[in-house]
Amino acid sequence: MPTISFANSKGGSGKTTSALLLACELAHSSSVTLIDADPRQPVTRWAALSEKPASLTIVSNATERTVLDQIEAAAVRDPFVIVDLEGTASRLTSYAISQSDLVIVPMKEQQQDASAALDVIAEIHRDMKAVRREIDYAVLFTQSKVVAKSRTARHIARQFRENDRVAVFDVEINERDAFSALFAVGGTVRDLDPKSVNNLAAAIDNVAAFAAETIERLRKAAAKRKVA
Ligand SMILES: Nc1ncnc2c1ncn2[C@@H]1O[C@H](COP(=O)(O)OP(=O)(O)O)[C@@H](O)[C@H]1O
Ligand SMILES: [Mg+2]
């Protein structure tokens, strides 16, 4: 039932990668719909490369005219609905945000991504006003270096983490071979050949931790709504 959207108007911030990682991880134990709401259809292209998990349904060609109905239909059917959004602020983005239980704002630890993330957060607050309810969101650092982060990266991450008004995932999605390989070969991280990508075990652990924290955030958001 919960709907999770991935939004950041900056292209390359890691929306599609993180959405796909989460969808495949949750699909191990649950039914999941992943809605491809980017006109370039990156998720749909990934699905055409190789076999996808049987419990994962891909909905292609979501537009501002269709996305509300597509989310509604998927939410009735599946325990998790994930929306991969395009890289521009649009009515489509606002519609998806308005229906979300959690909006994940992926960003690289770079200034341009940081500015775009702040714009998206402002947009989420406007959408909250429009629908008159609170919408939980959290920034997710992506493509972060496992070792030797730059000074800029550390500075930007610290600014976000020390800002009490912005929720930030404890987990970061690291920059990993396994995660970029998915778009070349299809399938899930768990399907990859350990001999063909570096440190697959760490990549699998990273995704499991991301899914666990997402579920925890959804649980807390639901508890908060019950109290309100
Ligand atoms: N965690 C990661 N590790 C390695 N490569 C990544 C990671 N996240 C994204 N990429 C690569 O960066 C590029 C942009 O990522 P993508 O997820 O498509 O961003 P967006 O959907 O925000 O435009 C892609 O080529 C993708 O393979
Ligand atoms: Mg994308």
Automatic annotation (TrEMBL):
It holds the Pfam family VirC1. Gene3D superfamilies: P-loop containing nucleotide triphosphate hydrolases. CDD domains: ParAB_family (cd02042). This is Chromosome partitioning protein. SUPFAM superfamilies: P-loop containing nucleoside triphosphate hydrolases.
